[in-house]
Amino acid sequence: MCSNYVPVSRRDRLLTFFGVERERDDPATDAWPVGMAPFIHLAGGEVRVVSDGLFGLLPHFATEVSYGRRTYNARSETVRVLPSFKEAWAKGWRCIIPAESIYEPNWETGQSVRWAIHQEGFIPMGIAGIYRRWRDPKDNREVYSFAMLTVNADGHPLMKRFHRPEDEKRMVVMLRPADYAEWLSCPVEDAARFFRQWDGPLLAEPVPLPPRAPKASSVRTVRPPKPETGSLF
Fold this sequence. Notes:
Layout: E1 5-7, H1 11-18, E2 36-43, E3 47-55, E4 73-75, H2 86-90, E5 94-106, E6 113-119, E7 125-135, E8 142-152, E9 170-172, E10 174-175, H3 180-185, H4 188-191, E11 202-206
Parallel strand pairs: 3-8, 4-8
Antiparallel strand pairs: 1-5, 2-3, 5-6, 5-7, 6-11, 7-8, 7-10, 8-9
């Protein structure tokens, strides 16, 4: 699971490591659920572009942005069937989420300690995701939103150290740069072959706690349609 990360926000790094051009640099700030961050997708066939989207996928039936506070991660085992994610998966709306590092809670001391995880040499991560457009029913504004895909990490040498001892260990799906183009363009029935634990070197270290995350919207939540099977998320 990953609810907080550092997006790649510099133009030169997006171009060097992901082959996309952006018109501006953004400050190096942490991304939280329903915050805006860059993601990479295809536009016009095989053209790779970078757009801004909300971190937390908003399905067509979501009535407010705060819905994305529950849909920032999509489990690879259920992304095909859960109502919040299945349309984006079935239509091949796949993306790459560029991250300088991700944050996870380490409980080895008996308390939650925030750790930062990154690649050796601070090479950015390309995290596999899904995305879609969403229209806000209140003002008819249309925005992108996205979610990170995750896999089981019980046996991973590093990622198994995070989250509560009794919880299942999860990690985001990291893509090899050589697989970026294929992940974005392959047929839906072939995309699941990218669901695997990362086997490259990762480094991790404890970091200070960040400012408190933004509070959820006080707007009343309208209950979405009842899912066909199981949970929405």
